Amino acid sequence: MTPGEVRRESCEVAIVGGGPAGLAAAAHLRRAGAGRVLVLDREPEPGGIPRHAKHQGFGLRDLHRAMAGPDYASRLAERATSAGAEIRAEAQVTGWGSGGVLAVTAPVGRYELEAPAVVLATGCRERPRSARLVPGSRPQGVMTTSTLQQLVYLHGARPGRRAVIVGAEHVSFSALLTLSHGGARAVAMVTEHPQHETFAPFRLGAALRYRCPLFVRTRVRAIRGRRRVDAVELANLDGGQNREIACDLVVFTADWIPDHELAALAEVELDPLTRGPAVDASLRTSRPGVFAAGNVLHGAETADIASLSGRHAATAVARYLDGEPWPESRIPIRCEPPLGWIVPNALTARSGAQPPPRGRFLLRSGNASRRPRVELTQDGRRLWTGRPRRLGPGRSGRLPADWTAAVDPDGGLVTARLTATP
């Protein structure tokens, strides 16, 4: 190469992200007979978030066993490599070059990667304090769950002594366990919603084992402290009462945003509600040859659901490599408030040929509802109506996929709305 020339290499499938979705897609593609499959991950080791979540509960849906996070991450990586996929750690995809090649920066230098199929499996992240516009001073001791887990499990640090957890979703209870492992005690868990958004046994176990009070309909009004957090000021959203809780650590959990920067650089259509790539039932984006899987599509489902999403995308990638044409048009699916989002969120003329991941659409709501009635319509025509088992901000409801057969491929967008609650 001449000075300044960027090295270029090629593969059949490039997978951006070495978490559960990316690793599962890689293993499935190689077993399906795909050629060179290359996984690019910016972290020092593959595995994603489970790599530093040392509690049980991973792998139930995809591996059919309960595993600790690091064991689960290692198992997925081993399955990918044993199938013949290549994994490159500390490889950051920074953009797209001419002709759709990926620009990669790694310890060995910069290079370009050309692939006829690309799977975006970049996951999602929790919004930090700055993005949530929480006022007050700027002391040390304010972090997200991911930072907390890395401090405790990867670096063996003690993050603090008394913590307030902001949020009450699945990951919030993971933060509660991590705090205990790091020698800290959670003195409060607060959520703006009227109830927690996790499984009832999780909440019961936390109340019995860790004695952590849950304050619902409560917002963090301010964080106090100079060098280190001293206290948080909480405001009740119904009565307006304020209270102050002494602590030296504040952990912001949930409130997810997909890592969609690479998708945006590719000019892939983003869903306005999930803010991740808009995909059809085969997890195809609006850009030919580019697929998306896992929590980059939404925030956030569990690791095993992300893994199954990666497998689903791999099946569609294999069909594409075998010559299946890319759809020329798409019908968007939109949600009316208080519904939050639906995934998949686009339909194509061939959507009925393959059901969505796990044979269902995932639906979120901005408000918790018991036995809500949901209606799907197109151009005023009802496609489906029914009652999901649950619906809320932190847990997805499930909708069947058989209604897609009634969609008019030449019609307008499909609308999901909440029609009534008991």
Q: In words, what does this structure look like?
A:
The protein is an alpha/beta fold. It has three domains: 1-127 and 255-326, FAD/NAD(P)-binding domain; 130-254, 3-Layer(bba) Sandwich (FAD/NAD(P)-binding domain); 332-422, Immunoglobulin-like (Sandwich), CATH 2.60.40. Helix content is 21%, strand content 31%. It is built from eight helices and 29 strands. The protein has a five-stranded parallel sheet, covered by helices on one side. Helix 1 (20-31) links the parallel strand 2 (13-16) and strand 3 (37-40). Helix 1 packs parallel to helix 2 (69-83) and helix 4 packs parallel to helix 5 (170-181). The longest helix has 19 residues, at 303-321. The chain is globular. The mean pLDDT is 93.
Task: Describe the structure in brief.
With 422 residues, the protein is an alpha/beta fold. It has helices at residues 20-31, 69-83, 129-132, 145-154, 170-181, 200-210, 261-265, 303-321; strands at residues 7-10, 13-16, 37-40, 86-88, 92-96, 102-106, 109-114, 117-120, 124-126, 142-144, 162-166, 185-190, 214-215, 218-225, 229-236, 242-246, 249-252, 256-258, 290-292, 331-335, 339-343, 346-347, 360-365, 369-370, 373-378, 381-386, 390-391, 397-400, 414-420.
Helix % is 10-25%
C-alpha geometry: globular
User: What portion of residues belong to β-strands?
Assistant: 25-35%
- The largest sheet has its strands arranged as 4-3-2-8-19
For the record, the count of structural domains works out to 3
CATH superfamily of the largest domain: FAD/NAD(P)-binding domain
Mean pLDDT: 93
* Rg over C-alpha atoms, rounded to the nearest angstrom: 22 Å
The end-to-end span amounts to 70 Å
The quaternary structure here is single chain
Which fold name fills CATH's third level, the topology of the largest domain? FAD/NAD(P)-binding domain
**CATH first level of the largest domain: which class?**
Alpha Beta
Q: Examine the secondary-structure arrangement and name the CATH architecture of the largest domain.
A: 3-Layer(bba) Sandwich
Profile the largest sheet. Answer: 5 strands, parallel
- Count of separate DSSP helical elements: 8
Structural class: alpha/beta
Q: Which consecutive residue ranges, at least 5 long each, have pLDDT under 50?
A: none
Overall number of strands = 29
